[in-house]
């Protein structure tokens, strides 16, 4: 039995690519190969990575289909959200049903770059289905890494308000802040703000004993820091020791602090109460956190905040502002 050529062993390939290596259409029908999509195969014993499965999808689709939404954002290194189905967009009324692929159709393509739609356009597409908290996390991530700017995002959304996700993107743009450096930090900031507590400064800097110290969330008026403790804070000894030094400086300067883990972040109502008590201990005399309907918006879809599309087209106004 002839060996499978090396170029075909490590990923997906088309019939034409197989023929170039001497593998005929009849051989592709044998037990050593598996059809992934129409016109696309892989070796039976190979397991496709996410990147290879994406390549298989691209090989099966027309060249004018471009990665969008979660798929395009994951290509940037954003490891969150749903990895499948792969989402592409194509201009015109092109119908194609492929397993594990969702092909969006549009009368006019959004801006493109060398890999698909631009990150700002992909974010707008994501906003059509995303929850408020998830959109804030992703939007902050894109801003912090300079994949998009707020001006680009809002300008693109307003230039084509008919596009799915455009109204949602404009609404959530008011809650984005590129100074947050991680997804959990963004969610933590959103939890604080949507509970009605004062807006903290993300990654606020302070000088303590000649040392520059950065707090994930900094309430400067009340000398209170909120720190998100990810897994690396427990697993990396150097990070753990640096944390101890930072908290020692906080205590020495009368700075209050709240440590937040992923488990605490899951119980957001309890968490904002803990932060409120720490603020009170350092002179805060404002209103307590409100965990009512406004707080619950965080875990609702963005589309609920801007209303049905038919009402947006009539310029309806809501308590959240204009949706036209």
UniProtKB/TrEMBL annotation:
It comes from Nocardioides marinisabuli. This is DUF559 domain-containing protein.
